[in-house]
């Protein structure tokens, strides 16, 4: 794996694209970002023609792998007839019906384009419904790059005034944020017990902390949040942009048996195309007919809607999730066993087809992880296996047992040299 063409492409991109990448965290890839020319199934090919087994899966959307023919066929058929039309079209409600059929609490939805946008829509609906302004989120959780939620990114940020997560953010909007600790039932009880005094409109929670170590909820955590929100008149919002439709067809509500008022979906719902949605109770969503503003030129565009409908149709087959669980379990067992050969190598957390490398005695984070991961990341890349700087691992139905076995063998070779 020479990587020479990617290095040259990165240098060229830096002369025209800020940071040389379309999304900032891609720049953290050592020795430099990979540039690809083709992607099929569970593999990508770089500009030199070298092939890699892909565990990035576009940072999560590709549950069915790259270029699933069922999705591509649906999109291609629509693309010849229309692109963005600025009017209603049947795919708008056909795709919505497919999503609502899958989601246990889905009565109505609003289309958007990205997770960041859809989170803001959900919070606006919650504020309109409650007449309150503050949002309770959980330390380390990522809900998009918007000023109002990109804060509280450290474990130490709990139960104290939120501070900006990076330069250039407006500190004034962070008075609207209250930060709790994931799986800390007692702290949630105390803060939500003061919901009226604190003016809390919504609880915003990633049910599995997808960007903060893939930490699963404890047995009582989500159900306690549901009870507390009901008791104190707070809207419960699940941010399922990553986990939704990846961990189960009905998302976290199906997997954990707790129904939020609203869920934010994205990534996996459109099989590699750009779309997101706020899904939930009709009385909340229908506030857009009574003055709550929701807009977007590209919302519900025919290309994305064709991708959503086709993807959701495929995901309706229970065999898809059985296959995802089997291949993900194989990865955890085989690749995890290589890490388990030494207490210094770390381990994996797993919820369904979403995994996270956890260093020995170390911490994980949105921007990367400590321990050996940087060494593993570059060492595996040079052997033809593509992973993420953050240590997250995404599996798909396109991955095979042979891919997993080859990955384990390559990791074993690498770690034996350390």
TrEMBL record:
Give the UniProt keywords, A-Z.
Aminotransferase, Pyridoxal phosphate, Transferase
Q: Which InterPro entries match?
A: Aminotrans_3 (IPR005814), Aminotrans_3_PPA_site (IPR049704), PyrdxlP-dep_Trfase (IPR015424), PyrdxlP-dep_Trfase_major (IPR015421), PyrdxlP-dep_Trfase_small (IPR015422)
Q: What domain of life? A: Bacteria
Name the PROSITE patterns for this protein.
AA_TRANSFER_CLASS_3
Q: Which residues form a coiled coil?
A: none
- A Pfam family that this protein carries is Aminotran_3
**Which cofactors go with this protein?**
pyridoxal 5'-phosphate
Q: Any idea which GO molecular function terms this record carries? A: transaminase activity
Q: Which SUPFAM superfamilies match?
A: PLP-dependent transferases (SSF53383)
Q: Which PANTHER family does the record associate with it?
A: GLUTAMATE-1-SEMIALDEHYDE 2,1-AMINOMUTASE, GLUTAMATE-1-SEMIALDEHYDE 2,1-AMINOMUTASE 1, CHLOROPLASTIC-RELATED
Family membership, please give it. Answer: Belongs to the class-III pyridoxal-phosphate-dependent aminotransferase family.
**Name this polypeptide is given:** Aspartate aminotransferase family protein
Organism of derivation: Streptomyces iakyrus
